[in-house]
Task: inverse folding
């Protein structure tokens, strides 16, 4: 059966453009939670580094409420950053870079201040 280019030769080279498209990570599924995005991008440990630095900076935590009091603003800010910079068709690698970049900037700010 002919391919899209009308070529009947099944031994012909594979189209590099199609291979590049197939090797790209898939697009970000719609309506993901922040937790899903962190899992999908593998940035949990990196995010935890930021959280622990912030907790150390504020003198630690003594209760669950104080922990969430410190952590919730970080998660809220990350979510806002994702909402601002996300675009339709964004792939997983691009989302990972977005999250990494934001966390790195926040870590630098915590260390600097």
Result:
């Amino acid at each position: 059966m002919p391919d899209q280019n009308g070529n009947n030769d099944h031994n012909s080279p594979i189209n590099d453009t199609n291979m590049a498209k197939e090797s790209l990570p898939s697009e970000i599924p719609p309506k993901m939670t922040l937790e899903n995005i962190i899992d999908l991008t593998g940035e949990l440990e990196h995010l935890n580094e930021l959280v622990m630095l912030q907790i150390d900076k504020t003198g630690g935590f003594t209760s669950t409420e104080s922990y969430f009091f410190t952590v919730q603003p970080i998660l809220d800010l990350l979510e806002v950053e994702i909402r601002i910079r996300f675009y339709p068709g964004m792939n997983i690698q691009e989302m990972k870079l977005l999250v990494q970049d934001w966390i790195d900037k926040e870590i630098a700010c915590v260390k600097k201040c």
Helices lie at 16-23, 34-41, 44-57, 64-85, 92-112. Residues 30-112 form one domain. Residues 1-25 have pLDDT under 50 and may be disordered. The chain has five helices and no strands.
